[in-house]
Design goal:
It is a single chain. About 5% of the residues lie in helices and about 45% in strands. The chain is mainly beta and about 290 residues long. It has two domains: about 140 residues, Jelly Rolls; about 120 residues, Jelly Rolls, CATH 2.60.120.10. Strands 2, 3, 4, 5, 6, 7, 8, 9, 10, 11 and 12 form an eleven-stranded mixed β-sheet that branches. The protein has a six-stranded antiparallel β-sheet with strand order 1-19-16-21-14-13, with no helix packed on it. It has a three-stranded antiparallel β-sheet with strand order 18-17-20, with no helix packed on it. Strand 5 and strand 6 form a beta hairpin.
Length: about 290
């Protein structure tokens, strides 16, 4: 099972659970139960200038990657001024809040795992009585982050092709940067930044977990369950457990996207490449 779609800002609405607990806040679900997923809650979120999301906690884990604009993000009582390329995680039960800047709207990709419950089901978002907002905030500084589970990565930090280390077997020519994973402190999902150079592809394979992909720059041809799509900025894929998929950058420029895994992959046999197993079948069965 899989899903392919395109983000349309005109379809953004205020999440029902944040009515009365936010201002100028809109969201568009990309992947959730409505697309067939059972683990992934992927969305684009936006705050208008001066908008806010009151302090709240979830019974699921949540991560974000800032796409555009600037905002103040408060987590566990500490506030940070965020810019594009900043990312972070709020563990289950961690209080966090948002406040939009004055220059323009701020937009971020948000990943939630386990998947948030649909409207009408049991609550999984809760609001403390204290709704105070910070008077000031500093920009991210690695020397002061401590255990805040925040970081920064953007395309300008990708090393030149000749200076890159391989991403792994079957991933030659791919740049991969883990943003959120077990080492970072997450328990339920991963978030990573990927680049394919022109001409790079990955062989047909599937996984024991769900993946979602949000295209940032460039174009890529994706084939999922035998169906082929042409994807560019703002397009997204979701592949369910067992979905055989492959990606090919047949353009003349790099393609970059943000990718999520949910739940976290096993320690071994992460990729099940089809061709090697077909070859092994011949050896075994003949």
């Amino acid at each position: 099972m899989h899903h392919f779609g395109r983000f349309d800002p005109q379809t953004m609405t205020t999440p029902p659970e944040f009515a009365g607990h936010s201002g100028g806040y809109r969201q568009r679900w990309l992947v959730n139960h409505a697309t067939g997923s059972v683990h992934t809650g992927l969305s684009i979120n936006e705050l208008a200038p001066g908008g806010h999301v009151d302090p709240h906690v979830h019974s699921f884990e949540e991560s974000f990657y800032l796409l555009s604009g600037e905002a103040v993000f408060t987590i566990d009582g500490t506030s940070w001024a965020l810019r594009p390329g900043d990312y972070g995680t709020a563990k289950v039960g961690t209080t966090h809040a948002w406040h939009g800047g004055d220059a323009g709207p701020v937009r971020w990709l948000q990943m939630a795992s386990p998947q948030p419950k649909p409207v009408g089901a049991e609550r999984d978002t809760f609001f403390p009585r204290d709704r105070s907002r910070p008077a000031s905030a500093r920009h991210l500084d690695a020397a002061h982050l401590k255990d805040s589970l925040l970081g920064h990565f953007d395309a300008g930090q990708i090393p030149p092709p000749g200076q890159r280390q391989g991403a792994g077997q079957g991933l030659e020519g791919v740049f991969l940067k883990w943003l959120v994973d077990e080492a970072f402190g997450a328990f339920h999902h991963r978030l990573l930044f990927i680049e394919y150079q022109p001409g790079v592809s990955i062989a047909r394979h599937d996984h024991t977990f769900e993946e979602a992909y949000f295209i940032l720059e460039g174009e890529v041809e994706g084939t999922c369950d035998g169906q082929t799509y042409r994807a560019g900025p703002g397009d997204f894929f979701w592949t369910g457990v067992g979905c055989v998929h492959t990606f090919v950058n047949d353009s003349q420029a790099p393609v970059r996207w943000l990718e999520t895994f949910s739940p976290q992959p096993p320690r071994d046999n992460v990729f099940r490449f089809i061709a090697p197993w077909e070859q092994r079948a011949k050896e075994l069965e003949e």
